[in-house]
Amino acid sequence: MTEQGGDVRKSKILLDEEQVGRTLARMTHEIAEQSPDLADLALVGIQRRGVELAARLARLLESFYGVRPPTGAIDITFYRDDLDARAGRNYEQPKVHSTDLPFDINDKTIVLVDDVLYTGRTIRAAIEALFDYGRPTAVRLAVLVDRGHRDLPIRPDYVGKNVPTSRSEQVVVHLMEMDGLDEVAIA
Asked: Of 7, 61, 79, 151, whose CB neighbour count within 10 A is largest?
């Protein structure tokens, strides 16, 4: 889940537009190499920026391999394990987005897609939400940035960039579709 709030002008740029493009292309090839039958593959983005990344990966798979897997979006708001804790600590109310899975997830290999992997709690919630819609053959994880600091035993299958961070730092992801530019920075 993208961490917002840092002033990107005072941040260190980790990936610029060209590097984001190359990183997603590499991840696309890795997904294809580890998916024996692309017809059984589907990409599900975690709301918000994961949805855009899943759509890009699907377009790249079609461009490189001639197969465009179905894509969907999953909202994890009500699956979070920290809603009560966040309510008492001056956090913004969570924004609820839509879940849109316009295909049957049963017997598919689902690649969950997110922008930043941090504690693993978002991914745990996404897996729980996904299983409310069916039973996939397998669930894989693709993240643009893995910043470490896991609270749960979750490891991505496809990583754009590993970035060692301190817990006080923020990783800020901007995507063209939402923010008008492609960029990953650390604040």
From this structure: 61
Q: What is the 3-state secondary structure (H, E, C) of 9-47?
A: HHCEEEECHHHHHHHHHHHHHHHHHCCCCHHHEEEEEEC
Whether the CB-CB separation of 155 and 161 falls below 8 Å is answered with no
Q: Assign 121 a pLDDT band (cuts: 50, 70, 90).
A: very high
Classify 184 in phi/psi space as left (phi over 0), alpha (psi -120 to 50) or beta.
Answer: beta
Longest dimension (CA), the chain: 49
pLDDT in tens, 136-166: 999 999 999 999 999 999 999 999 999 999 9
Which tokens go with 166?
Answer: 């301190």
Please, is 12 exposed, middle or buried when counting C-beta atoms within 10 Å of its C-beta (0-12, 13-18, 19+)?
exposed
Domains of the chain (ranges; CATH) run 18-168 (3.40.50.2020)
- Interacting residues of 54 by C-beta distance below 8 A, sequence separation 6+: 43, 44, 45, 71, 72, 73, 111, 113
Rounded Cα gap, residues 121 and 85, in angstroms = 13
| Token digits of residue 187 | 């604040």
- Give the CA angle between residues 122, 157, 15 to the nearest 5°: 80
